[in-house]
């Protein structure tokens, strides 16, 4: 059994090695380098001109600490079929999950301690001595241990292992990682959930219901009802707005916002294959040109909504013009080009 889970872990690590080059491509690394330089500069400016009102900084540190305490999920590598084939090994599995919980605690504590150590100059400006800071790290490590014990206990039942909770927890953990990679490249194995969201039905009524626009109707419904596309649209739009609102440097805020917009529109191209495994869409006589045109029509509409939302936060007329040009290039040059490559 040890060899089985060791192999599963190695297979998942191979998946990381497969997709990480797409994430850490030259352009993205260059953006991260500039962003890191900007963050370090702002950090030095904050320490140099420390505000007299400490409460906003204290509140931010509390939220950050709470977030870091949650970092670290238990990697069990359990699969659906294990409830049948490994039922006889349940006691060994419980021992294995306890060990996985300890490993998660160690890695999570290291991340937590390093992140807080980088912020020690801020704690020092707030009046915390090095001794008290180290004591705080120890107390937080103890609190994290209790949180990790609760996470492991949630995977157990009174009579042994809670198979349902353990398998669902592992699926959720893997899906979170795959969905992160899916922001940069098409990823196999990303599952979706569908909700009706009847409160969004008025938006669907704006799409004409006629034979020539059936793909537009399908794509619009997939976008609004699938948990992936709408959630992705909201999250990346929110991040773009945060960049425009809270980063004082106009050029950097604009660059970050456009990067988030690019990632969003690039990822929405996967809508083209959303119905590939639906039997009725296979039986329906497909017109690839109409399908492509309908998807582009939807993406251009979503791009226009993005532009309208973000243009009010650009700060000046020149940035608004740059953003308008960017969305025009994306909607009428880049997206048709990428979609042609996807189809071919």
TrEMBL record:
Query: Does the record carry Transmembrane as a key word?
Result: yes
The record lists the membrane-crossing segments as 20-43, 55-78, 105-124, 130-147, 229-248, 254-275, 295-311, 317-335
Keywords of the record, alphabetical order, are: Membrane, Transmembrane, Transmembrane helix
The source's domain of life comes to Bacteria
Q: Name one Pfam family in it.
A: EcsB
Which terms in the GO cellular component ontology are assigned? membrane
Annotated protein name in UniProt:
Bacterial ABC transporter protein EcsB
| Protein's organism | Streptococcus parauberis NCFD 2020
């Amino acid at each position: 059994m040890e060899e089985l889970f060791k192999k599963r872990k190695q297979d998942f690590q191979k998946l990381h090695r497969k997709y990480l080059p797409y994430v850490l491509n030259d352009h993205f690394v260059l953006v991260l380098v500039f962003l890191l330089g900007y963050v370090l500069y702002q950090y030095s400016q904050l320490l140099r001109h420390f505000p007299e009102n400490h409460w906003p900084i204290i509140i931010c540190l509390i939220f950050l600490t709470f977030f870091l305490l949650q970092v670290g999920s238990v990697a069990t590598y359990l699969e659906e079929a294990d409830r049948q084939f490994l039922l006889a090994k349940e006691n060994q599995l419980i021992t294995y999950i306890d060990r996985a919980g300890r490993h998660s605690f160690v890695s999570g504590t290291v991340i937590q301690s390093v992140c807080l150590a980088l912020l020690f100059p801020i704690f020092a400006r707030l009046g915390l001595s090095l001794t008290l800071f180290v004591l705080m790290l120890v107390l937080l490590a103890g609190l994290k241990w209790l949180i990790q014990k609760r996470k492991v206990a949630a995977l157990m039942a009174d009579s042994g292992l809670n198979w349902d909770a353990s398998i669902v927890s592992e699926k959720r953990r893997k899906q979170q990682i795959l969905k992160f990679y899916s922001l940069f490249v098409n990823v196999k194995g990303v599952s979706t959930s569908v909700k009706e969201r009847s409160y969004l039905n008025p938006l669907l009524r704006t799409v004409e219901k006629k034979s020539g626009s059936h793909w537009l109707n399908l794509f619009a419904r997939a976008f609004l009802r699938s948990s992936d596309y709408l959630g992705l649209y909201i999250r990346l739009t929110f991040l773009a707005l945060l960049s425009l609102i809270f980063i004082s440097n106009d050029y950097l805020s604009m660059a970050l916002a456009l990067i988030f917009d690019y990632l969003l529109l690039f990822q929405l191209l996967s809508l083209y294959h959303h119905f590939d495994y639906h039997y009725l869409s296979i039986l329906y006589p497909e017109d690839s040109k109409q399908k492509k045109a309908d998807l582009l029509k939807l993406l251009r509409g979503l791009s226009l909504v993005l532009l309208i939302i973000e243009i009010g936060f650009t700060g000046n007329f020149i940035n608004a013009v740059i953003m308008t040009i960017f969305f025009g290039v994306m909607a009428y040059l880049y997206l048709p080009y990428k979609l042609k490559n996807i189809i071919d």
